[in-house]
Amino acid sequence: MPPARGASAAAGEPHLLSEGSLPSSTTGTEDAHADARGAAADEPARSSFAALFSAVMLPMFMGAVDQTLLVTATPRIAAELGGLAQTSWIAAGYLLASTVMAPLYGRLGDRFGRRNVMLVALVMFALGSLACALAPSLRLLVAARVLQGLGGGGLMVLSQALIGELVPPWDRPRYQGYFAVIFTTSSVGGPLIGGFVVHHGDWRWLFLANLPLAALAFWRMSLLPRPHPSAQRHAPYDPLGFVLFALCAASALVWFGQVGHGFALVSLPSALIAAAALGTGVALALQQRRHANAFLPLDILRLPGVPWVCASVAGFAGTLFGLLFLLPIYLQVALRANALDAGLQLLPLTAGIVVGSTLNGRYSARTGTSGRLPPFGLALAALAILALALLPPLPGVITPAAALCGVGFGTVMPNAQLATQILAGRQRLGAAAALLSLTRSSGATLGTAAFGGLAFVLLGSSEGSLQVGQLEPARVMQAFHIVFGVLAGFAALGAFAAWRAPRMDLRAHAERGSAPTPALPRRAGE
């Protein structure tokens, strides 16, 4: 019987364990029979659910929705502040900052308590939102988005970690399911929310709305139990690893996002930035191998099968976020749709992801295997995007294509999470989760910058001089059809990686408890 669980519920107090009082899912020390004990225990009080859910739901929602909130507002922002060719940095700047900060927030949460670090992240996110709302120029808006991303990088990471720390194992699957729905709907629903606000008002309200939400989340978060002193508080730091990672990620993103229109491919700036990305990347890999408490979980990446899983996640995230950035601009500039209509035309993508996730879950439960559907899902997404590249831009083409993309995308992340958890083993669940989150955010950042940059190169931009009103619809359609074709090829590479990733036998894993489960043998033709 879990300690004092029934008493807490009977007394009507929220059943929230203080941080550190429960074995974390990252330690691998949970009882293998925790679920069985939880089934026999009483349900937690409703106040317990409301207290934690309301405290952690808002930060996760804000962190996820701000990744895609501005995609339908991009043409309006470009018309007001100028420079359509630089607008990809509105999304990429936020994604880059959140990508760099996510592993650091995980480390800081281990040391100083996730509740405390979350409060800091919320304050930084709110300050960045206020700076975005007041930005008088595009460059200052991008800088403010970077500041917002420095806080946003901790919202989702710490929200998920708080579930692992404050919720007993027997209740944790229920919470994780709720937050999976929140993340999916908010990420893909962001363009619809942004389109609605821009259609009826000023795009700056998209940032001002974050201020009361952040204040509410701060208040609810402050009511959670204070953390106990952590054993990780005095673990060795790895500041050099963090600096090298930040430099490598930033220089690589700048090169992919600016080559061809910010500077020529064969030029001194291009060579210097590419050399910086390559040099810091090599130095990071060498330094991380030697550090006792490395910043990045590269040891997980060396496990058989994990690189292919991560490659499939990078293909999924790059394709999804590239499509989310490109499609609203395509609809508004080439087809003259308004922001609200552009957001509404992304709804089939949202619905498709929900359908794909549901079908994938039922298939895995019925067959007891995981990893068979992602190759077909990403291949389906590649074919749908190829249809956007080859067929006329009619609603009868765009809507089904978006829905099929969503169904394909919905099969990827659940399988990737299961595969990395099983391959890494219970002792390294936290490191596996961090690696997958980093891969997903890196792929999203790269997809937004690289494919957005390619579109602007094809449109003939030069140092940010591209203006929305100067673009001819026929020219935009021709350029975006080429980009959609390249994006379809990128999705196909993700499908190949997913085909190479291992299939996991979930029933064998359940029987063996905490022992890693071997991948299913491939059959001929698989």
UniProtKB/TrEMBL annotation:
GO cellular component: plasma membrane
Membrane-crossing residue ranges in chain numbering: 47-65, 85-105, 117-136, 175-197, 203-219, 240-257, 263-286, 306-330, 373-391, 397-419, 431-459, 479-499
Protein's name according to its UniProt entry: MFS transporter
Record localization: Membrane
The Major facilitator superfamily (MFS) profile domain, residue ranges: 52-506
Region ranges (Disordered): 1-39
GO function term, MF aspect, one: transmembrane transporter activity
Source organism of the structure: Ramlibacter monticola
Domain of life: Bacteria
Presence of the UniProt keyword Transmembrane helix in the record: yes
Keywords: Membrane, Transmembrane, Transmembrane helix
Chief place of localization: membrane
Mode of membrane association: Multi-pass membrane protein
Coiled coil location: none
SUPFAM superfamilies noted in UniProt: MFS general substrate transporter
